[in-house]
Amino acid sequence: MNTIDLQVSLTLEQALALAQFLKRVGIDDYRTLAVDQDEAWHMLDAGERVRAALREVGIAPR
What we know:
Layout: H1 12-24, H2 27-33, H3 37-56
Helix pairs in contact: 1-3, 2-3
């Protein structure tokens, strides 16, 4: 599998909002926007990876 590393600069407010979004979004939301089931699962996985990266820097809403 090919991977890429991303670096992004966000304000604290943006990071908190993104973390909240990723906490609330689920597979049904991704299915609505995806072309098929496989893409929805890839979208979910990518979102969870971003969510984990946010958690690692202390942005983890409850």
